[in-house]
Specification:
269 residues, 2 domains, ten-stranded antiparallel sheet, globular, disordered N terminus, binds 2-oxoglutaric acid, binds manganese (II) ion
Length: 269
């Protein structure tokens, strides 16, 4: 992460200086495994706005082969403005692209979806090879803020819109062959707060020999969840149906896709 975050032992509070020594990071963890990294201003008036913008409180979520970081990236006001813009400007797939083919039958996807990204990228979606739509300013704004907060870059985004708690996404891993190996996935959420569940690949049924407990999170309005390697190798995730949720939600997963030339040479494998 930016500002020189370092990972600490559990149950210990340590400090690290930022490169300019204007901020320091404090991290503490509790017995549940959660920890928080807080960037603390040294002298209030000395820190420029540009640096303050990079100060986020991160919660580390760690389990066997699961490594995630969670923060509130946008204030409530910013998030509401962005949500309204997304609702007005994002054009979702329709027709065959809003359906999935399972065991010889077509089904409507229980949410709306679309992809945006850099020119020249190609990926397979519902069995069809597609190019993402070109970036628009509201997506540039979100992507740039994630890049500022994490130091990671992204060239592609998958957007999911859930009209209410009936819309959902089933257990899956983000392990598409087009992803840059070991790259993190940045998941930003706007609108209704929804439950999000990780299940370890060896503990998905009651009869599994190994019983690792699911990891359950609530993804809030304006939040960012970083799913770091190797989370998506070992853990499935889902956004379950929640009948009581009546408001819409938009989720954007920013990804780093390989370029055509990287795919053909097998670079980065
Ligand atoms: O809506 C979410 O929070 C998850 C979306 C997701 O898992 C995906 O797009 O692959
Ligand atoms: Mn996913």
């Amino acid at each position: 992460m930016i500002c020189g975050f370092i990972f600490m032992d559990k149950f210990v509070i340590k400090k690290a200086s930022s490169p300019k020594k204007r901020c320091h990071v404090e991290e503490c963890a509790d017995s549940s495994g959660y920890s928080e990294k807080v960037l603390v201003k040294k002298k209030k008036n000395e820190v420029p706005d540009s640096l303050l913008e990079q100060c986020f409180v991160w919660r580390r979520i760690i389990e066997v082969n699961l490594s995630c970081d969670y923060t509130i990236l946008f204030t409530k006001r910013e998030a509401t403005e962005i949500f309204q813009q997304l609702e007005q400007e994002i054009v979702y797939f329709s027709g065959d692209l809003s359906k999935v083919h399972v065991f010889g039958k077509w089904h409507n996807v229980p949410r709306k979806q679309v992809t945006y990204g850099d020119e020249g990228l190609a990926y397979t979606f519902s069995g069809i090879t597609l190019s993402p739509k070109p970036w628009i300013p509201v997506l540039d704004q979100i992507r740039d803020k994630i890049q500022l907060a994490t130091g990671q870059s992204f060239n592609f985004v998958l957007i999911n819109r859930y009209k209410d708690g009936n819309d959902h996404i089933g257990d899956h891993r983000d392990d598409e062959k087009e992803l840059v190996p070991r790259s993190p996935i940045a998941s930003v959420s706007f609108g209704a707060c929804r439950d999000f569940v990780f299940r370890h690949r060896d503990s998905r049924s009651k009869n599994s020999l190994c019983q690792i407990k699911p990891v359950k999170l609530e993804l809030e309005h304006g939040s960012l969840l970083m799913m770091n390697f190797p989370t998506n190798v070992y853990w499935y995730h889902s956004l379950p149906v929640r009948k009581k949720v009546i408001a819409p939600r938009v989720n954007l997963t920013f990804r780093q896709l390989m370029l055509q030339c990287q795919k053909s040479t097998g670079n980065g494998k």
